[in-house]
Design goal:
This protein has helices spanning 17-25, 47-56, and strands spanning 4-8, 10-11, 28-35, 38-46, 61-66, 69-80, 87-94. The chain has 97 residues and is of the alpha/beta class.
């Protein structure tokens, strides 16, 4: 297994285009963690950190820390802006611990 990259995340309770836009303006990237029998967990990831993960080691295992818990996940999909190529949203597939 490849190295595990640890990222701090914040659980998000707001949804929609307006919230996602404000999230990205604050340097965060909206993401969702799903799979492995979990209910989907909506989080905000640090924009620069997730950009570096996608750029350098897209197949890496991520340890997403939120609310005092940690969930292992791998990147399933990255949605990018069609012109600027900024990361708009990330789908993460949960991995059983």
């Amino acid at each position: 297994m490849s190295d595990v990259i640890r990222l701090e995340a914040a659980v998000r309770t707001d949804f929609g285009k307006g919230f996602a836009r404000r999230c990205r303006m604050a340097g965060k990237v909206p993401a969702v963690i799903y799979g492995a029998g979990l209910d989907p967990i909506h989080v905000e990831l640090p924009g620069h950190d997730i950009f570096m993960v996608v750029k350098n080691s897209r197949k890496a295992t991520l340890a997403i820390a939120f609310d005092g818990k940690e969930q292992l996940a791998v990147i399933k999909d990255v949605q990018r802006h069609p012109v600027r190529r900024d990361i708009m949203h990330v789908d993460l597939l949960a991995v059983q611990n």
